[in-house]
Automatic annotation (TrEMBL), chain A:
This is Synthesis of cytochrome C oxidase 2. One of its GO terms (cellular component) is mitochondrial inner membrane. Disulfide bonds join C117-C121. It is a single-pass membrane protein. Keywords: Copper, Disulfide bond, Metal-binding. Cu cation binds at C117, C121, H208. GO terms for biological process: respiratory chain complex IV assembly. One of its GO terms (molecular function) is metal ion binding. It comes from Gallus gallus. The keyword Magnesium does not apply. Its main location: mitochondrion.
UniProtKB/TrEMBL annotation, chain B:
GO terms for molecular function: copper ion binding. Belongs to the cytochrome c oxidase subunit 6B family. This is Cytochrome c oxidase assembly factor 6 homolog. GO terms for biological process: mitochondrial respiratory chain complex IV assembly; respiratory chain complex IV assembly. It is found in: Mitochondrion intermembrane space.
Amino acid sequence: ALALLPARCLRRLSLLPPRLLPAPSRGLSGPRGGPPSALPLGRRVAVVAAVGGAAGGAWLYLRARKERERRERRRRELRALALGQGDFQLVDHRGRPRCKADFRGQWVLLYFGFTHCPDVCPDELEKLSRAVELLDRDAALPRVQPLFITVDPERDDVAAVGRYVRDFHPRLLGLTGSPEQVRAVSSAYRVYASAGPKDEDGDYIVDHTIIIYLLGPDGLFLDYYNRSKTADKIAESVRRHMESYEPLLD
Amino acid sequence: MSAPTMEERKACWAARDEFWRCLDTHTEDAPRCEKLRRSFESLCPQQWVKYFDKRRDFLKYKEKLETEGFHPAETDGKS
């Protein structure tokens, strides 16, 4: 039984008066086998079990406390960052005005992109759609709202965004607006976007941050997923956030 | 000029992949793959062709780094 105890427990055991420890080379042979002053086997096992239990309990408590502290630290960081604060005024792909308050109370997976995007945006939106589908399968979880916001308002008007989002998850909502409105929401979410040079057709590629953001029901950023995160990993992470959610701002 | 639809995107990607497969088989011997190159250029917007060409260069460079390692350009003279 001694071999099962962590090192610190063995150290503590060695501080006990010698006669409480089993005699080393004799094994646990009971009262007749050991020196006259040794405790009976049952008592020795009980001591080891009690010490082991206390040590195990202490370890579990410390581990839980460390986990709590890590979560608290993360919440402090997220609160200080307060990414995505402030309102936005955009228009959805059906022409309805939308502001941030419209999404309060909902979990949102948000992707910034543009409809003339060669490959990355379709891939990421495909992935986002798949993650939402996976989460939809669990009836106990709140429905996630997938959101696409364009970083190319000059070309991506309501009609263009409408044509684009049709190819992905049925709940995917596309948002666009004036260049000022789009700039405001991009900077609120610290999204980098830079239009490249135009060719003779006037076509251009917009270089931009490739990230899927998770927003909690209070509208603030909770997590992000880059290109390397699979749909399964994203769904798993969103589920974990939902299960441990506490509002960031009071 | 409106953005490519999903069908157009997929057609472009398929043409690109065929072209790249040809380049892989003939070790970047572009003249051999001329027909596929023309098909790729006709099915993809010009900006995308440029973008995918750059991407191909990058992927090949990355592959080279991974197999041969990085050799900074040699300077002459001083040690």
